[in-house]
Specification:
Elements: E1 2-6, E2 18-19, E3 43-47, E4 52-55, E5 63-65, E6 86-88, E7 94-100, E8 106-111, E9 115-119
Parallel strand pairs: 2-3
Antiparallel strand pairs: 1-9, 3-4, 4-8, 5-6, 6-7, 7-8
This protein binds zinc ion (2 copies).
Length: about 120
């Protein structure tokens, strides 16, 4: 189990999570419904190329929506195409992008550089 904290203020950003594999590939299923989450709850996947950590949408309780509504465009949910749309609830720094609209993937991508991993002390 590990937890990711804000680099800036140490606020926990995520639930306790373990490394896991995506439930499906990057292609979203056909149709106009919100896709099932890419990751299972409680798991995350590192995307080294993009410098992102991919989470289930419910695993980032330490984040809040961006105060700028222009970042929150979308019809059924945030599309996440206009820059990071989640901020740290502790200090307001941009930490992640959520996408869960009817034409996007369904995930939260935490910016790796904005988070520090902290193994849970048993
Ligand atoms: Zn939509
Ligand atoms: Zn913070």
């Amino acid at each position: 189990m590990t937890i990711f904290r804000c680099v800036n203020c140490r606020q926990p950003l995520t639930s306790e999570v373990t490394p896991g594999e995506p439930l499906r590939g990057p292609e979203r299923p056909p149709g106009n419904e919100v896709a099932p989450p890419r990751m299972a709850p409680g798991t995350f996947k590192v995307n080294f190329d993009a410098g992102l950590l991919i989470f289930h949408p419910d695993d980032v309780p330490g984040t809040a929506f961006h105060p700028d509504p222009r970042r929150l465009g979308g019809c059924c949910g945030p599309a996440g195409q206009d820059g990071p749309n989640l901020v740290c609830i502790g200090c307001g720094v941009e930490v992640a992008t959520k996408e869960s609209d009817c034409w996007t993937d369904n995930l939260v991508a935490l910016i790796a550089a904005a988070a520090t991993e902290e193994p849970k002390v048993l």
